[in-house]
Amino acid sequence: MSTNTYKGLLLRGVGAGAVAGLLAGLVGVLVVEAPIRAALAVEQARPDAPDAGHGHGELFSRGTQVVGGVLAAVVVGLAVGALFATAYAGSRRWFTSKAPFVRAVALSAAAFGAAALLPAVKYPANPPAVGDPATVEYRTVLYLGLIAAGLLVAVGASHLASRLGHLGAPVRATAVASAVVAAVVVLLVAFPATPDAVPSDLPGGVLWEFRLASLAETATLWLGLGVVFGLLVDPATRRAKRVSAL
Known about the structure:
Layout: H1 6-44, H2 62-90, H3 100-122, H4 136-163, H5 169-190, H6 204-245
């Protein structure tokens, strides 16, 4: 399937997303699961926990939830892979001097920064023992809003870099980086703080182990997507160029 068509890129994006989602799911099992279990133990030890002292079982066992989490990561990877391929197809007119692999990895790194790292700085992930259920909708709106704003910054940075193509690379990179840093600072200041405080009974080590592990899982998804997509697109693009040159 040619990489010159959107269908060819979409199929490669979906395939890369499935692989990246599976890798992220495995990171979730191997790295994130431990602090989740530690946080659940804290939550279940609270006097007002729903099953505290009564021994009621969960609707789904923890093992089932873990398997479901891996499957969910694969499904998310498929969706993100399709969006990634669409974004890659839309950005092909930019940075045409770069190899497809480099462009794919750069695009995934930008997406990770905008859609994962930026929200993680303002609204770091919290384990099950943190958060008031009554604020879930408000927190979700804040989180998604910051992701949307971050993606707009990434798109704007790409446009700016393209418009400044007549400048030398150091000047162009400095101008774009300065604009991105300024925009990120404005977003971090403008968005309100999370409404939920961290309970005093949750160990700080568990909290930060969960946050760093969650960020590692997200990074695996995005950067794995860029690398696998680049490996799928780059050789095919080079072959197509060799054939067309004959």
